Amino acid sequence: MESKSVQAPFEVDQHITAHSNYFVGKMGSKFYIALRDSKEILGVRCKTCSKVLWPPRETCGRCFSLLTEDDLVKIGPGGSVVSFTRVHYNEPIHPDVDAPLVYAVIQLDGADSGMTHLIGRVDPDQIEIGMRVTPVFIENRKGNILDIVYFKPE
User: Fold this and answer.
1) Distance CA 57, CA 31 (A)
2) Pick from 27, 39, 91, 124: CA 20 to 30 A from residue 47's CA?
3) CA–CA separation, 95 vs 82, rounded Å?
4) H helical segments located in the chain
5) Which neighbouring-strand residues pair with 59?
């Protein structure tokens, strides 16, 4: 009978960063152009189930109805923290913010869904569910989600 040797797992410490450009579709384009050009945040109201989703998309995630540019609505800019997590380490994929940083799911006024973004100008230990926040925009906006630098407490 042949004896088999046991090999310990070999681990590689590897961090992958991928930079890319992609088309965000008609709804995404309208969303980012409004963010960039007028600091407006758009959602989309489903005519079938009446839910307002942000960021806007072309299909309702609740009832699967088709959504169009005619269904876009202004929401926010204020909102509430629905959930959050503290990050105690730095990674190249994080925005240009040193740890500790806080990511939160923010439900804007007028929306029925939330989106993840950074919370700033507050001690991470002071953040709580239901906290009211408002966006802080970068001066030279480029048409991406980091045009909102972070949300701060109201």
Assistant:
1) 9
2) 39
3) 21
4) 25-38
5) 66
Ramachandran sector of residue 82 (left: φ over 0; alpha: ψ -120 to 50; beta: rest): alpha
**Cα–Cα separations (whole angstroms), residue 25 to 30, 44, 69, 94:** 9, 14, 11, 25
Q: Among 23, 64, 20, which Cα is nearest to 46's?
A: 64
What is the residue whose two structure tokens read 């310990």?
8
DSSP 149: E
Report angle CA 135, 104, 98 to the nearest 5 degrees: 80
pLDDT in tens, 87-137: 999 988 888 888 899 999 999 999 999 999 999 999 989 999 999 999 999
Beta bridge partners of 66: 59
CA distance 55 to 45: 11
* Contact in structure between 56 and 67 (CB atoms under 8 Å): yes
Q: Which residue has the tokens 């992609």?
A: 22
pLDDT tens for each residue of 37-59: 999 999 999 999 999 999 999 99
Q: Could you identify the residue written with the tokens 């806007």?
A: 56
Collapsing DSSP to helix, strand or coil, 20 comes out as coil
Per DSSP, the three-state class of 53 is strand
